[in-house]
Amino acid sequence: xxxxxxxxxxxxxxxxxxxxxxxxxxxxxxxxxxxxxxxxxxxxxxxxxxxxxxxxxxxxxxxxxxxxxxxxxxxxxxxxxxxxxxxxxxxxxxxxxxxxxxxxxxxxxxxxxxxxxxxxxxxxxxxxxxxxxxxxxxxxxxxxxxxxxxxxxxxxxxxxxxxxxxxxxxxxxxxxxxxxxxxxxxxxxxxxxxxxxxxxxxxxxxxxxxxxxxxxxxxxxxxxxxxxxxxxxxxxxxxxxxxxxxxxxxxxxxxxxxxxxxxxxxxxxxxxxxxxxxxxxxxxxxxxxxxxxxxxxxxxxxxxxxxxxxxxxxxxxxxxxxxxxxxxxxxxxxxxxxxxxxxxxxxxxxxxxxxxxxxxxxxxxxxxx
Amino acid sequence: xxxxxxxxxxxxxxxxxxxxxxxxxxxxxxxxxxxxxxxxxxxxxxxxxxxxxxxxxxxxxxxxxxxxxxxxxxxxxxxxxxxxxxxxxxxxxxxxxxxxxxxxxxxxxxxxxxxxxxxxxxxxxxxxxxxxxxxxxxxxxxxxxxxxxxxxxxxxxxxxxxxxxxxxxxxxxxxxxxxxxxxxxxxxxxxxxxxxxxxxxxxxxxxxxxxxxxxxxxxxxxxxxxxxxxxxxxxxxxxxxxxxxxxxxxxxxxxxxxxxxxxxxxxxxxxxxxxxxxxxxxxxxxxxxxxxxxxxxxxxxxxxxxxxxxxxxxxxxxxxxxxxxxxxxxxxxxxxxxxxxxxxxxxxxxxxxxxxxxxxxxxxxxxxxxxxxxxxxxxxxxxxxxxxxxxxx
Lengths: 369, 393
Ligand SMILES: Cc1cc2nc3c(=O)[nH]c(=O)nc-3n(C[C@H](O)[C@H](O)[C@H](O)COP(=O)(O)OP(=O)(O)OC[C@H]3O[C@@H](n4cnc5c(N)ncnc54)[C@H](O)[C@@H]3O)c2cc1C
Ligand SMILES: Cc1cc2nc3c(=O)[nH]c(=O)nc-3n(C[C@H](O)[C@H](O)[C@H](O)COP(=O)(O)OP(=O)(O)OC[C@H]3O[C@@H](n4cnc5c(N)ncnc54)[C@H](O)[C@@H]3O)c2cc1C
Known about the structure:
The complex is a heterodimer. Chain A is an alpha+beta fold.
């Protein structure tokens, strides 16, 4: 179920499947049930070439999202690690050095609206000194560096690279529902002194300077959601065929068939939006609105898919460690990070209201496949 | 039609609130999320007469009418679910588990078991579902064979609430090869019976004491047959009929809790220069949540009220359960969305509610089964009845 891939892209998907069947499948339980992802897992994915495929400059986005969907289908937690990596790598641009970065942007009182963050960076001699508390920082344990958003004196916002070994950093896990292998933490920066070369990027209050990186994160979460939905579909098909009630496989009942039909339609439609966005990106066209559409649609389709999958499984689908109940919980997060569904709708509406029918050239907007 | 709760009912609501605050919520807070029963909770519920309310005076209860009161059952489940979910499940599982005894027990059985139930001395389980008989409960395979003065039970029950904690299991088993439901009978099996084993405790998406019970040549006295042989499935269905609207009430309670938390948070949470209630996206969510809860609540109490007037409520209870479970799921989902990232964090009430509302769309007749009941009844004409007048009286 995907956009027509060319031979090269198909080969990349094959390579991903090979890595999954040889490595990732053996770790799924540990990642999704125990919630443990280690540096060894990162090394393994680097060695397989998948890391480079997702993060390197050589690969097309069509391939990247294809790889991410495959990863997510097997281990949503593991696939979700790449969201932060893609986001931070984009911000680092040519400063990217292949290491593991973790974004520390959001705070207790500043999520969708980052303009009210309290974390501050002050220049003291040749150093920046960071003070503040970040919430919901993903992968703090695995990261080599934090990428921290802070207010800078001239009323702008800047992003700093902070080694996780810098003095004055305290982390505290924030236990959550779903995506067990993706850990969230509170990270406190207490007068953390970093060299002046740590400043990576400055942006103004509109945060438009982050739109491109945010767009990439959306593609990544859209892929994650589609992978989750596909996994939910696969599990549902197995159950619908095998489980008998009232003398028939439950897949014989229209109540079950229609759920399966709806999930299938949803996955295909979501894929179309995602591949449209990826294609625009590969052509160096503006893709942010498409990315927002792909994200909100895929995550909401995934919500339907996991809900149906649980229902099709009956009480077995509610067992805490069953695959579908894990998918049910993990999916929920996709509607929050990479900006909430409400923020996606704001982005889409703003673009459409400002442009469609205003500028004649864009009347065909959205049909550009 | 009077939509208000009467004085007795209002007093009950007030009392539940007081008991929750003073006794039940502290027990829940101390207990946390565990998949076993809280016996402190059982004692507190018993002490405050919860288990007594629907049981006739003759058997240690407070119910002076000779019929269980569906409206009260709904009030208790709604209020407990809203304020103290641990109390709700501790209350309702034992009520359902012991209900067949109230329906079909001999004087002696009722005196003995219901006495222990009202005092909180014994906890009950309702053992119907099997690995191969879920929605299609009639196809259950557990057997009970008479051998002299004893019944010998063999088979496996799964997803049995209170398994491992219950002192008394009400078990549905096949006593003859009669087709369909006719060969099914009901038995009272005490937990210390040799041959009854809790073979698995299960961990579900939300905290709940539940497990698998296996019967291997489990011998029980002949007198432990409940009611008449071959009528067991009827007792199961009559019990579920009594409780179905109250599952809806529990779901309304969960939804109310979700809305209360979300609305309070939305008023306090600021983004883009003011509370997030400034955005229509949030206002409309809250409005839909509120509207749907009102609708669900009306369906639930309508079904309960009709039941209390002596009507058959197959249709009304199915509609109430179907709709209330859907509403609770939507409300918990939107409530969690309003909390943003915080809604996903352990300790946030919505994180738990999102998981807690999910099972009810599967147990005691899944959503699909309710659709079947309603659809079938509509089409074959059995739901087009004249009893509407009774309610309007
Ligand atoms: C799994 C996961 C991983 C994460 N990873 C990271 C990470 O690595 N680094 C990091 O910094 N953060 C991370 N986050 C945090 C995440 O980015 C924020 O939770 C998210 O942006 C929402 O912010 P908030 O939680 O403060 O919600 P709020 O912004 O407070 O939003 C509350 C509610 O109000 C709505 N709302 C807000 N503004 C508007 C508006 N203008 N119009 C309509 N509705 C509005 C929101 O949609 C939401 O429903 C992660 C979160 C999760 C769940
Ligand atoms: C928290 C919890 C507590 C429980 N407590 C108890 C208890 O105390 N005692 C007890 O006996 N049981 C209990 N159960 C079990 C519960 O009642 C059963 O799981 C339920 O009847 C569904 O059966 P199943 O899980 O086998 O699903 P299945 O019957 O296998 O159903 C799977 C799916 O197929 C659908 N389906 C089935 N037949 C049809 C059809 N003809 N047409 C369309 N769709 C159909 C179902 O709706 C469902 O979506 C509990 C379950 C839970 C989750």
